[in-house]
Amino acid sequence: METLDLLLGGLGDAITPMNLLWVTIGCLLGTSVGVLPGLGSAMAVALLLPVTFSLDPTAAFIMFAGVYFGGLFGDSTMAILMNTPGGGTAIASTFEGHRMAQLGRAPQALATSAIGAFTGGIIATVIVVFFAPRLAELALLFGPAEYFALSVFAFLAIASVVSDSVIKGMASLVIGLALALVGIDGISGAQRMTFGSAELFDGISIIVITVGTLALGEVFHVASRIHRRLPPEAQAMQGRPFLSRAEFKEAMPAWLRGTAFGVPFGVIPVGGGEVPTFLAYGTERRLDRRRKNPQFGKGAIRGLAAPEAASNATSGTAMGALLAMGLPTSATAAIMLAAFRQYGLQPGPLLFERSADLVWALLASFFVGLVVLLIINLPFAPLWAKLLLIPRPYLYAGIAVFCGLGVYATASSVADLLLVLAIALVGLLLRRFGYPLAPLMIGVVLGPIAETSLRNALIASDGDYGTLVGSSITITLYVALLLVVLVTAGAKVRGRLSRDT
């Protein structure tokens, strides 16, 4: 009851006219920056950090709440419309979300994203408000061996289900892992696949890989087929600018499953929101294979709903981990930690005692910000979708320009521009020969985490490989992985036998 009273007090502070104005401005600014390729929600918070220095702490962090969730929606908007995710958390949304847009269901895809973001964010924020101390206990259950087991599970589970050919799925995964390993080995100092180039010593940025593979690679793919028969451009605006009852019923279980994946990952420093979004996507894909009429690859609404809910649920509990433990589990949370320190505040258990008014106003502003985003973005979904009515040559030329600007803005490096061009050609070849992109991206995201976790686990155990299966969590993950592989292999064999007969 005391928690509810404190939350209502914070809500009273958050819904004052000025604070409502700040959270609305934050939502609009966050969305505007989030739609730019290569920037995303973390960059939105970083770029807008100086803007808040003239505000009092409560108003500043309420505005940050709007920027935080607005940036996530901006990430997904471009992922759906242009196959150009603003950040890593929106990568999984490109696979089915962009397909929906191509088939004339862009407004419905954006509505699915907005409602999924609202659902995941609201549930995660409620959990943060009432169960923040328990989040710390959950985080302590995961050590290096558990992180490695989780990474292996994601590698093989996704690579085995996203393509009709397991070989192609595994090949795409290997390419992603190879890209992730480029650079100087942090322990031995040895060069790995740098070819003696100093520009590659720090590795290849995930922004370069994401923009090159998904965005610029898509531009090249469309350009290579521009004279072939393509769906008419006006098809992008066909359909209803809202979800029907059947579509809502279809998406609801996926929103809830995605939220269930995202909530625990917000307090586990295992790579931000990318991991649960891929796991949620992979789960929906596996469930879809059991249906009489599989929808994945045809614009499956559940393939978009689950990653969107997982992304925002992760972001919500990540803020809970930051406030309750002072633990930044994502890049955006790390920037928020810097903002707290700028105001002389240190997140952690004492923050709830020393700055209770600020903390509860901020938590209440999460609810307000999510509602404001839903109100803003649902009516504007058809307006966003009209971007697809721009003639293809101009549209994709603009995407190519923004890809270059986004990549150059992150590091001011000409070498990154050359790398994104080379990786885009790799993305074009993968599309041309039917190799899935999801395993490549999961390899890039989780490759460094898996390597670091494996090394830390072996160092802590003096090289004893038994430590990798030394806990109930790791055993559970490996058993689940074995079941997934067996079920997937059985389904592929039955499908091949049915075709032969």
UniProtKB/TrEMBL annotation:
Keywords: Membrane, Transmembrane, Transmembrane helix. It comes from the Bacteria. The keyword Membrane applies. The chain crosses the membrane at residues 20-49, 109-131, 138-163, 169-188, 200-223, 261-282, 321-340, 360-381, 393-411, 417-433, 440-459, 465-489. InterPro entries: DUF112_TM (IPR002823). Residues 20-442 form the DUF112 domain. This is Putative tricarboxylic transport membrane protein. It comes from Janibacter alkaliphilus.
